[in-house]
Amino acid sequence: MSDVPFGFGPSDRDPDRDRDRDSDGPKDPFGFGNLPGGFPGGLPGMPGMPGGLPGGGNFDMGQLGQMLSQLGQMLSSAQQAGPSDGPVNYDLAAQLATQQLAQKTSSLTDAQRTAVADAVKLAELWLDPATEFPAGATETVAWTPSDWVKASMPTWKRLCDPVARRVSGAWVEGLPEEIRSAAGPMLAMIGQMGGMAFGSQLGNGLGQLAAEVLTGTEVGFPVGPERTAALLPEAVEKFTAGLDRPASEVMIYLAAREAAHHRLFAHVPWLRERLLSTVEDYARGITVDTSRIEDMARQIDPSNPASIQEAMSSGMFEPQTTPEQKAALARLETLLALIEGWVDAVVADAVGDRLPGAGALRETLRRRRASGGPAEQAFASIVGLELRPRKLRAAAELWKLLESERGIEGRDGLWAHPDLLPVSEDLDDPAGFVNRRDTDDPIAELEKQFQAEADAAAEEKKSAESDASEGTEGSDDPEGPDEKK
Asked: Where are the beta strands (DSSP E) in 228-297?
């Protein structure tokens, strides 16, 4: 697992290490644990703001001015966005992200829009013989980073809400009843402040992410409207500048990946819901050790800031990772690796002989994901998940082996039902999975499984009816067992 999402982080963070990681992009954009300053976590909702207490060694009036300026900006944006009914103020998040991007991006040209449309159209033609799934996207668009923020916000809400709701409520649930009663309306106000803080963190994180993402599916699944293939020309041009390949070749390769993602998600109807529900499974398990909070309530001296600082830095508010959460994260990691591996293998088949630089581009994008690119960091910040390159490469190898042994139809047939897909252990031995005889025909295996379940249910029903019949016959005896004796 990576940094813990939405404000909980290990108490032994190394500030120097975190500053180094911040240079690579948003590693914990929704949490409060990365922020420098004397007070652990700084001020919630204001990334990078100093949290030093008066008298601390690192308190600086210049920092105070910057902090107040950013605080005023956040409050002003929050007032314009309005109150939030949920755990995250998404209107504030969208507004902050858009403001951040306004200074970095420009409007798209007709030439850029045409290049995107032509690239996707050509990619779809090349993908047709490489997969059983027909074209999934019915619309092709070119997005600015601000367009991406607006289009992806409903998906981020679905991903963030379960985690944020549990994080914001976990520590309140752990408070003793007498403290909750005494706090009264204060808890509601804290909830509003929490929504604003989470919204600010999300907005800043999405602002950084939107400036770097290349396509609408770079996080591993479509974040925008269904069946809408999207590329971000400005980010693609910056990405291409560091490569020794023609811009048109890079655009077509990325378009092929985008189109392949949409083919998979459009024709595997359970896939998107399975991903999102797994995040929710993880969120439901977030808990805080209530006994430690009760100890804190008894030990803290409200008049002594040092005692509060010590309690906050002790890791008391960190969620306890449960076996159920670990299982959910493992399922999510495996499913994302299978998706990315399938796209990787299909695109390699589709464009390999047509684009001279396809192999180099494939490796570049693999390394981009392996080194913790923006999409990887986004997932890590939301659900504490990082995909391991070994799993991604193993998944691509598995799909390639399946195609060699069973053909394109047999390979794509595994997506017919989630129970047919490889599990994490199978990615450690792709050849072993492919060579199993009992999965040579995935559809037949699925039908066999359904039939076995139906037979078991029928047998159970028959047994229950038999037991009920015997009981009824005994109760109808007018004499009963005692009279017979």
From this structure: 228-231
341-371 per-position pLDDT tens digit: 999 999 999 998 899 999 999 999 988 877 7
Determine whether 179 is exposed, middle or buried from the number of CB atoms within 10 Å of its CB (0-12, 13-18, 19+). Answer: middle
DSSP 8-state code for residue 52 = P
Amino acid at the residue 336: L
Whether the predicted model's global pTM rises above the 0.70 cut: yes
Judge residue 219's burial from the number of C-beta atoms within 10 Å of its C-beta, 0-12 exposed, 13-18 middle, 19 or more buried: buried
State how far the Cα of 123 lies from the Cα of 253, in Å rounded to an integer.
8
C-alpha span between 82 and 159 (Å, rounded): 22
Distances (CA, A) of 72 to 38, 234, 442: 21, 31, 59
Residue length, the chain? 485
pLDDT band at residue 104 under the 50/70/90 scheme:
confident
Q: How far is CA 129 from each of CA 126, 257, 340, 416, rounded to the nearest angstrom?
A: 7, 15, 19, 19
In the chain the first and final C-alpha atoms are separated, in Å, by: 71
Q: Give the CA-trace dihedral at 95, 98, 102, 107, to 10 degrees.
A: -130
Structure tokens given for 127:
């993908």
* Predicted confidence (pLDDT) per residue in 7-19, tens digit: 444 434 444 444 4
DSSP 11: T
